[in-house]
Specification:
Keywords: Amino-acid biosynthesis, Aromatic amino acid biosynthesis, Glycosyltransferase, Transferase. The chain is α/β, with parallel strands linked by helices and 364 residues long. It contains 16 helices and seven strands.
Length: 364
């Protein structure tokens, strides 16, 4: 048993009237001791439940993210015309709506705006469709690559995916606890804010999905504490970065200027741009893959409309187009001209060209 960890656990687990918040340094220490499994399984499970009940503060989340930065994989900076967009979505996947972020990311990459996603396999408690299975359906075997190879693919194609089981095994070791405690721990919130690409770099654009407004508030303050220069918060489908078409998109636009956070609220109404409609239902993976192939051929359809709605917004947000309307037009043109399909083939080829390696580069 770790007595150091026990003291930290006592702070967050003493009840609603006597519990106290951790400092940023203490939160980083507690996170490190859990990820390195220096705390016992009982201590780790108790901390996860207690911290969930108490609710992590932005200061604590900043400390947890500090630890993720020190222990987790970090891709190197790349040169690009536009900021590298990192899409942060819940790791436990989708159960109701079809994810369009992989095609959105491919569209951004086809426009010269790099994109990175990250996640793992099917994960408790939701056990929804994870992004890795969508990529596999499209023929992209990210799970085969080392972190060095992901870096190589990102540099040559503008697209990357960090796969938790191989690239961040210390965080992957926490996944069984989610099943055992039956609830999302604060780590699930950290995953919505963490970036495997240097988030303090001025050529990064961090996108964080959320469901509940308090999560967005904590995200905004946490990013300010960590001096995250350029970020977007999205009340997306199932907490993802996917903009809904069935309701107004609630978006936060954050940017640091001279150390001060400029945060603006954007309410994006689909009907104002001709995109109003039902959100796409989740299909079986074979059906979803077939639908994506139709989209990549530039053919119209409900899912195509959702892709243009999303890709157009993010093209504008990362500066690839001067207006949102121009973003929608460029996204549609890239899909219809076959540029996104060609980008998928390019990424598939880049992954295939990576020599098989068994020595996985997982962390610093």
């Amino acid at each position: 048993m770790s007595r150091v960890f026990r003291d930290l656990l006592k702070k967050v687990g003493s009840g609603s009237h006597t519990s106290t918040d951790l400092s940023r340094e203490e939160a980083a220490i507690a996170t490190r001791m859990m990820l390195k499994e220096e705390a016992t399984p009982v201590q780790i499970g108790a901390f996860m439940i207690a911290h969930r009940i108490k609710r992590p503060t932005p200061v604590e989340l900043a400390g947890m993210l500090d630890c993720y930065d020190s222990l987790g994989p970090q891709l190197a900076l790349i040169t690009a015309d536009y900021p590298v967009t990192i899409f942060n979505s819940p790791y436990d996947g989708r159960t109701r709506t079809a994810p369009v972020s992989p095609i959105t990311a491919l569209t951004l990459a086809a426009a010269g705006a790099p994109a990175i996603l990250h996640g793992g396999d099917r994960m408790p408690t939701k056990l929804g469709l994870p992004l890795i299975e969508v990529w596999q359906g499209l023929g992209l075997a990210w799970e085969r690559l080392t972190l060095t190879q992901v870096q190589q693919v990102l540099e040559t194609t503008g697209l990357g995916f960090v796969y938790l089981p191989h690239h961040f095994p210390t965080a992957q070791a926490m996944v069984p606890y989610r099943d055992q405690i039956g609830k999302r721990p604060p780590f699930a919130t950290v995953e919505l804010m963490w970036s495997p690409y240097p988030s303090s770099a001025h050529n990064s654009h961090l996108v964080s999905g959320f469901v509940h407004p308090p999560t967005e508030d904590r995200t905004q303050i946490t990013f300010q504490l960590r001096q995250t220069p350029f970020f977007t918060t999205v009340k997306g489908l199932e907490g993802s970065c996917d903009l809904a078409r069935s309701r107004t998109a609630i978006i936060g636009l954050g940017q640091l200027r001279n150390g001060e956070l400029n945060f603006e609220r954007l309410l994006l109404h689909p009907r104002d741009y001709g995109f109003e409609g039902a959100d796409p239902d989740l299909l079986s993976l074979p059906e979803l893959t077939d639908t994506f192939q139709v989209i990549l051929q530039g053919k119209p359809g409900p899912l195509m409309t959702s892709v243009v709605w999303n890709a157009g917004f993010y093209l504008w947000r990362c500066g690839a187009t001067p207006t949102i309307e121009a973003g929608f037009k460029q996204a549609e043109n890239l899909l219809q001209a076959g540029a996104v399909r060609a980008k998928l083939a390019e990424v598939r080829g880049a992954i295939a060209d990576c020599a098989p390696q068994t020595d996985l580069l997982t962390a610093h």
